Amino acid sequence: MINQVYQRRLLRRLNWEEIELLSITLFGVLLTAVTVALHTAGTVVFIRYSRRRFEVRQLKPSAFRLAEMCRVIGMTAAVLLTLHLAEVLMWAFAYYTIPGIQTPSTVEDCIYFSMVTFTSLGYGDIVISGSWRLLSGIQAMAGMLVFGWSSALLFAAMNFVAGFHKFSSGPN
């Protein structure tokens, strides 16, 4: 009996709304994957650059002057903010080019909506109606993911300039 119920559920035809929700979800997953790939590429390039740039000083963290410490933290923050802006613009472009979305109709509205959604601020003054609103929830999850990642990278940079990166070597 239970087996027949599952078979009927599996064999029933999908209606248009289910197909639409599935396609929107897959599109959101694709945009999230591109967001993560962009953030990965940006952070890997920046970490490689930073290691080469500050490799000599890594052995002697006490030799860091205040200006150099500020430069490392400032560069890290600037790179992360640039990555976040690029990711927001990518999502805004998606909102602008999707034919089924009517609410954020101008480029400015799409960028604003994308920024508010990506940061999980959620003012609510611009909302997407219909099935496409699912995409904004996926964008908010992607934003939380990369903001957490950026926080970890910023914390690692602070530990580096403070000289705490040697904790893993154990007691002396």
Please outline what is shown here.
This protein has 172 residues and is mainly alpha-helical. It has helices at 2-11, 16-53, 55-58, 66-97, 107-118, 133-162.
Notes on the protein architecture:
With 172 residues, the chain is mainly α. The chain has six helices and no strands. It is elongated and about 70 Å long. The model is unreliable at 164-172 (pLDDT under 50).
Structural class: mainly alpha
Strand content: under 5%
Task: Tell me the distance between the termini.
Answer: 68 Å
Largest sheet at a glance? none
Instruction: Please tell me what the overall shape is.
Output: elongated
Number of helices: 6
Strand runs, count: 0
Helicity level:
over 70%
Order of helices and strands: HHHHHH
Radius of gyration: 22 Å
Which stretches are low in confidence, meaning pLDDT under 50 for 5 or more residues running? 164-172
Mean pLDDT: 82
Please write out the topology:
Elements: H1 2-11, H2 16-53, H3 55-58, H4 66-97, H5 107-118, H6 133-162
Helix pairs in contact: 2-4, 2-6, 4-5, 4-6
Task: Offer a few descriptive terms.
6 helices, mainly alpha
